[in-house]
Amino acid sequence: MRTPVDAQPRRPPLSRASSYMPRRAIESFENLVALANHQERLRDARKIIWRDRGEPAVELEDLWECLEHAGRGGIRAGTVAFMLRAGLNVILASLRLGRVPKQMRYALIRHAIFGKDSFRFAAMLGSFVALYKFTLNALPVLLPQPSEPPPSPFEESEDESEPVTPNPVKRRVRFSLSAHAQEVWVRKRSHRWHAALAGALAGSLAVMFEKRSRRIAIAQQLFVRGLQGSYNAFTSKSGFHIPHGEALLFCICCTQIVHALFCRPDTLARSYEIWLSNASGASRQAIKMVRDMNSNGTFDVQDIDKILQRSDLIPANRTALLAAKALATGEPPDFGLYPPCNAIHPWVDSCLSVPIPRLMTVFKWAFPIYGALHFLPMMLFKRRAFLSRPTHMLGKAGIGTIRSSAFLAAFVASFQSWVCLKHYIYEVLSSQKTFRLPKSIINFFVSKYSYALGGFLGALSLFIEERRRRGELAMYALPKAMESAWLTARGKGWVFRTGSAGEALLTAVAMGMVMNDPQHLSGLVRRILYQFIGPN
Predict the structure, then answer these.
(1) Which of 95, 124, 145, 183 has CA 20 to 30 A from 407's CA?
(2) Rounded Cα gap, residues 432 and 336, in angstroms
(3) What's the CA gap between 378 and 257, in Å, rounded?
(4) Which of 165-169, 186-190, 256-260 has the highest mean pLDDT?
(5) Helix axes 523-533, 63-94, angle to 10 degrees
(6) What is the distance between the alpha carbons of residues 190 and 515, in angstroms, rounded to a whole number?
(7) What is the pLDDT, as a whole number, of residue 377?
(8) Long-range pairs, 171-178, Cβ under 8 A, ≥24
(9) Nearest to 280 by CA among 482, 483, 418
(10) Which residues are CB-neighbours of 434 under 8 A, at least 6 positions away?
(11) Is 452 exposed, middle or buried (0-12, 13-18, 19+ CB in 10 A)?
(12) pLDDT (0 to 100) of residue 391
């Protein structure tokens, strides 16, 4: 008799034969492996062009490793610099293709890519990165640090038992992952003066690869960035802060620039002087009359003749200009103390009718210029934010364009108003009988220094701009004002001549300051330095 267990059906025995894998599965696995290898190669290729954030610092033990590391960094930086400069040249050349004969277009593009400018720029950045990396990493090998390195001024206190009272005025330094990695490496391996010495040495030699006409511009921009970093480092340590310091600096710079425009145009770059003249909206003849009056108290009558030929000259101003010409050509000639306002704005007879039309004209002229400055960096450096929130980013760039255009328009309109106003103030003060000011104060309103005061007052329109852009505009104007002031002082014998080594010396000082405190620079400058140099 069977038991209940025997009544249950038996399971078939497990097969020990090897399982079969379809060919399609094998091919899919191979495709996944190939795709992974392809993605890894893409990441490696991308690292040649763009560094990832938080890249660790490289530990180097001897001079040969330092030389090899510096050589790789220099070749990479030179290659990237060549591509950037060649790409920019191609873009600029493409804008001229319509005005160039067809048989010369290929030569134009070829020169844009393989011209001397591309190789000079690549040699400058490549040599700077190579020299900087070698010097920075070789100094700790040649001059080993003691076993207990000195504390870094950026290192926070590790004693948590002592409360630290924060200073509300003191600026707090924010490190990115890459900057933190570099700071840790610097604390472990080297002194802070190593970076300053490496930057000064590399900068002074690398800038010599560029044309002499470009060295001074590069040195000036680097110098003001170094001043910016040094000032930010000083304020973060001491808590000292000047309210609206960037606006005050911009006003001082504009005072010197406007004074140079109307009194010493030879101390400004030719292209910058032309841009300022075009932005002012005044004719070249009117500007020349102001310069002549400031230099020798006379003006060229031919300038009045050219203004009389303008198609927008109204009859009332024509009569006034003919009267001024008759006085200037009489015996004895009478040029007056200042150019007539009819020559500055020949299209209207009243000075009160000048500011609003001038404001609108300059706004329309500046709008496409500032539009490119706001929209192009957004699409190049903030692509992810632009793709994720296009409406918000476009609106932000549009508002920034409006504010920047309004800033420049307000600057020009206010300065134009000041030029007419100071002439009116002089006439009113000169005709006073009961209450007379000192003659020196009255004559100030028709002196050449009154134009400089107009530059200071016009620069107050900077408050229309967004706060974060005020510092950038001040950094843009500072090197031009410093160059003009230096050339003016040198013409009067107040300062010495630097000769052919001036650009290299200024670049050395500038890069020493920049590399000594890179974490105190603006975010854009820090990102550019990190992409070319890396943590070390």
Answers:
(1) 95
(2) 19
(3) 30
(4) 256-260
(5) 120
(6) 13
(7) 78
(8) 171/232, 171/235, 171/236, 171/241, 172/236, 173/236, 173/519, 173/520, 175/519, 176/53, 176/54, 176/526, 176/530, 177/53, 177/54, 178/51, 178/53, 178/54, 178/55, 178/530, 178/534, 178/535
(9) 418
(10) none
(11) buried
(12) 87
Please compute the mean of the pLDDT values over residues 286-292 and round it to a whole number: 91
DSSP 393-422: HHHHHHHHHHHHHHHHHHHHHHHHHHHHHH
What is the mean pLDDT of the segment spanning 75-100?
Answer: 86
- Helix pair 284-296, 245-263: axis angle to 10 deg: 80
Q: What is the pLDDT of residue 495?
A: 77
CA distances, 449 to each of 13, 295, 443 (Å): 108, 12, 10
Task: Give the integer Cα–Cα distance in Å for 361 and 51.
Answer: 44
Q: pTM of this prediction?
A: 0.73
Provide the sign of the torsion angle of the four alpha carbons 353, 356, 357, 358, taken in this order: positive
Residue pLDDT, tens place only, 295-314: 888 888 898 989 988 888 88
Q: What pLDDT, on a 0 to 100 scale, did the predictor assign at position 249?
A: 93
User: Taking a C-beta distance cutoff of 8 angstroms, is the pair 77, 532 a contact?
Assistant: yes
Provide the CA 390 distance to its chain's centre, in angstroms.
Answer: 26
Structure tokens, 164: 């630290």
| pLDDT tens-place string over residues 115-124 | 888 999 999 9
- Give the residue with greater pLDDT, 16 vs 128: 128
